[in-house]
């Protein structure tokens, strides 16, 4: 979480630096465009003044009824110089107009980029909002972890309980097996006593007919206990797997 916060702070710093640089460039271009507009206005005024003076000179020459030849030559020369100056100014003015048009296009492009940057900035969360979101996610993860820990503790307690039940069943099985062994020992002793008295054949048949149910009952009980024990072992194994899965996810 701390590494993520540091990364977000670095990204925010770089983002703010890029925005500041873009704002500076846009401000420079706007100032340059304003300067070109002022120059263009001054050149328009100069052109208007020259055109006005030229009109005055031509009017004066046309309305003049008398004059010397030299004055006529000087007037013609002045008219030629005025035309050349006017043509030169017009060419420079056209160049400046083209430069101004190109600059205005660049300013418009920068304004569009700046508008896009502002829109992106509005869509992106602020550093405070990002920190709030991260804190909310952290608290949510902590709550989920606490729930998982509670569930895991419950499952562990249940496993311990089942292990105790299994131990109890194992003890019961051992007692039943010991009881069967004692019964077998007692029957063997009884068979030896009856054989000493000379009734081995009859007692043997009777003993066999009585021994079969005991052994059969003991084997069935042992089989059931083995099945029950296997079932509990599988159940405990499944609980362990469930605990691992819940803790992992």
UniProtKB/TrEMBL annotation:
This is Uncharacterized protein. The chain crosses the membrane at residues 226-245. Residues 12-120 form a coiled coil. Keywords: Coiled coil, Membrane, Transmembrane, Transmembrane helix. It comes from the Eukaryota.
């Amino acid at each position: 979480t701390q590494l993520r916060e540091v990364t977000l702070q670095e990204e925010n710093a770089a983002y703010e630096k890029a925005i500041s640089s873009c704002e500076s460039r846009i401000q420079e271009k706007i100032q340059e465009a304003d300067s070109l507009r002022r120059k263009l206005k001054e050149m328009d005024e100069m052109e208007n003044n020259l055109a006005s003076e030229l009109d005055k000179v031509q009017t004066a020459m046309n309305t003049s009824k008398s004059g010397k030849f030299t004055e006529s030559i000087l007037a013609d020369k002045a008219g030629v110089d005025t035309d050349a100056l006017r043509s030169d100014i017009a060419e420079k003015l056209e160049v400046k107009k083209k430069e101004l048009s190109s600059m205005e296009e660049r300013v418009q492009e920068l304004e569009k980029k700046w508008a896009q940057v502002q829109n992106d900035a509005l869509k992106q969360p602020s550093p405070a909002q990002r920190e709030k979101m991260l804190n909310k996610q952290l608290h949510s993860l902590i709550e989920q972890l606490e729930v998982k820990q509670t569930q895991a503790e419950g499952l562990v307690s249940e496993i311990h309980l089942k292990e105790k039940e299994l131990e109890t069943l194992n003890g019961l099985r051992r007692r039943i097996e010991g009881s069967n062994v004692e019964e077998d020992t007692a029957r063997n002793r009884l068979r030896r006593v009856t054989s000493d008295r000379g009734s081995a054949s009859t007692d043997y048949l009777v003993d066999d007919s009585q021994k079969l149910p005991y052994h059969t009952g003991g084997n069935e009980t042992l089989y059931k206990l083995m099945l029950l024990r296997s079932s509990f072992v599988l159940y405990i194994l499944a609980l362990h797997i469930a605990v691992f899965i819940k803790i992992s996810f």
